[in-house]
Amino acid sequence: MWFPLSTSLSSKTKSNRQHLLLNSPPGRSRLLHTHLPCSYLPEKVRSSPGCKLVYVARNPKDTLVSLWHFLNKNLKADPFPLERAVETFCRGVMPFGPFYEHVVGYWEESEKRPDEVLFLKYEDLCRNPREQVRMLAMFLGRETNIDVEKVLWRSSMNRLKELKVNKDDAVKEGQHVGNSAFFRTGTVGDWKNYLTSDMAQRIDQLTRLKLQGTGLSFDDE
């Protein structure tokens, strides 16, 4: 989120987030990130002049596999079986709410307010990063002074993985895991290395059902 409030999002509760966003003094524009569903965003965020929302969605099968790896890397208990991960994903049991409702919420908001909400797909960012960066810059009103190549270099997976701060496994205050837990492969289509054909078909069927009539679709490759 890009909006003119001097604050940062708390990792606590929805009410804490609302308190921060509603009571922070005005200041320069800030860049914040959140996993909150669209419907949970405070009204102040939606109605604040100059507020811009950028949402990045990913293929549901890659999302599932990525989350499964993340949980298994950080859970202190027994390993989380892939079969169970698929089952809970299809039932809508996710850390930040059901996947499809989460994605569709921001998609529909971007359709209603294209000047305030930009919906991006992770696959498009990987396949055509220059075009996507230019689109993002135009959306944010920064197209006249952007160095696309520098942005791509600074945000590349290879560079970010090699930064000392992101190799750290230590759990810092306000975090549940170390920074290294957020970096794996970043590739598109990695689900093919893990999901069986039955698992993939089940998720594909659910995807068609959940996205029917929305105009939204995801590529498999």
Automatic annotation (TrEMBL):
Pfam short name (any one): Sulfotransfer_1
EC number(s) per entry: 2.8.2.-
Gene Ontology MF term list: sulfotransferase activity
Highest taxon of the lineage: Eukaryota
Top EC category: transferase
Sequence ranges assigned to domain Sulfotransferase in this UniProt record: 29-215
UniProt entry keywords in alphabetical sequence: Transferase
InterPro entries: P-loop_NTPase (IPR027417), Sulfotransferase_dom (IPR000863)
Tagged with keyword Amino-acid biosynthesis: no
Family: Belongs to the sulfotransferase 1 family.
Protein name in UniProt: Sulfotransferase
Origin species: Linum trigynum
